[in-house]
Amino acid sequence: MTLWLFDIDGTLLRSDSAGRGAMGRTFEALYGISGAFDQVDFRGVLDDGVLQRACVRWGVPLERDRFVARFQGELEAGMDPASNPAQQLCPGVLAALDAVAALGPVGLVTGNWKVGARAKLAAFGLWERFELGAYSDDGPTRAALIRVATQRAEAAGHDVQRVVMVGDTPNDVGAALEAGAVAVAVQTGWTDVADLMAAGPDLLLPDLVDGLAALLALGAREVDQSSSGR
Ligand SMILES: [Mg+2]
User: Fold this and answer.
1) Ligand 1 center to residue 111 CA distance, Å?
2) What pTM did the predictor assign?
């Protein structure tokens, strides 16, 4: 069966930079430095890497567990889509999750820490929709996270014949290709379509409304055992 893996930011939802804000407030609370992440590009990167680089940049000791614990509360407080219309699901997400769930297990592969992924998705009532996931906590690169998520699906008893990774950045596409997954790019994030195309995705979709039929066709297709496993 097909394992369906989704990135979060720009793929499933937009948080109106709630993660960046929570990072900044946490950094200021712990180290007394404001605006530490103002110039940081968060697209497609892992939270651990963002924090490590900030600690080097500002010359402060890395206190990861303490940081993440505080960050969780800051992000949960910052996620309120009922009162912030800029926090919204990307088009077609609910129907797409329903449709792929009928074809195989559904999981997350995201650069968020697990507590951040949960805070963002729970704000939309979606956390329970994902049977498994791999997060910044679980490995150093997105390709490693795809492998971890696949192992978790297999450990849960799923016979994974194909992995489909849906993301919105060239980093998602590159990781999928490196990990032997089918790379699906959606244009609902903040990346120019030319840059997405240059990354070489197997499938490039405008969003999960117009692209849903093509996405589902990936899971319906017979697995060719002579192929590279993709
Ligand atoms: Mg993303």
Assistant:
1) 8
2) 0.94
Residue 225 CA, ligand 1 centroid: distance in Å: 31
Architecture of domain 2-15+87-220: 3-Layer(aba) Sandwich (3.40)
**Ligand 1 mean position, distance from CA 189 (Å):** 7
pLDDT digits (tens, 9 = 90+) for 111-124: 999 999 999 999 99
Q: In what order do the strands lie in the sheet with 203-205?
A: 132-134, 106-109, 2-6, 162-167, 182-186, 203-205
How far is ligand 1, taken at its centre, from the CA of residue 218, in Å?
21
Q: Where are the domains of the chain?
A: 2-15+87-220, 18-78
30-54 tens-digit pLDDT = 999 999 998 888 877 899 999 999 9
Residue 170, SS3 per DSSP: helix
| Integer Cα distance of 141 and 35 in angstroms | 26
Q: Hey, what are 64's tokens?
A: 């990861």
